[in-house]
Structures are given as structure tokens and as C-alpha cells.
Design brief:
An 8-stranded antiparallel sheet has the order 1-2-3-4-5-6-7-8, with no helix packed on it. Strands 9-10-11-12 form a 4-stranded antiparallel sheet, with no helix packed on it. It is globular. The termini are far apart. The protein is mainly beta. The chain has 1 helix and 12 strands. Strand 3 and strand 4 form a beta hairpin. The chain is 9% helix and 40% strand. It has one domain.
Length: 126
Amino acid sequence: MSPYSFTQAGTTYDALGRRVARTASGSTTVFVQVDQQYSIVACTDSTGAATERYDYTVYGLPTVTDGSGTVRTSSAIGNRYTYTGREWDGVLGLYHYRARMYEATVGRFCSRDPMVIWVRTLISLN
């Protein structure tokens, strides 16, 4: 673990604020493996063995499998963070991207970008 990491509420973050490990049930530590988009591709135990793997469609719809490749309906370890490191709401089938929700089945956000509206308002004040 990096000397620049810190732990908050059972989750360990690196110096850039990315999740690198999570402690569940007070004793089991799960290490998060990510790809170049910071999408979680696997969760491993302390020996490096995969406990869960994640695969995504082009727009980010997740498929969760256990370490042996058997497809699961949801994460057995309670992992909510998947595509690009964002929180997946399995009930709604949407990702939470802070200011708006993203629908992975069609690859679109559910609302307009609130920042664009704010910038347009500022420009109109000139």
C-alpha cells in the first residue's frame, strides 16, 4: 500500500482519491483492480485470487461474475462501484455521476448537464 493512502469508513484510497481496498465485515479486505478508465475489473483477496470479476458493454452495463466465471445477478461482496469507478444503482439500472444519472443501456445521461445551464446564465449576464 502506498504511503500516501488513507482509510475512511472501511475504504482505503490512494493519494489521488481512488479506491484501492475495502474492508467488509470488519476483517475481510478486498483489493480493487482497475483498468485505464478506472473501471473496476476485479476484486481480489489478500493472496491475489479474484473473488469477483466485472465486464462491461460498450456503454458500461456491468456483468458480475465470481472468481470462477459464474455469472451473478449482483455483487456478493456488496461492491457498488463499477464502470469508471462510479456507483451503480442496480435497482434503477443507472450510474450516479454526481450531478446526474447515466443510463448504461443506451449510453446517455438522463438529464442535461447542469453546468452548461450555469455557464449560459453567466454569459447572458455580460
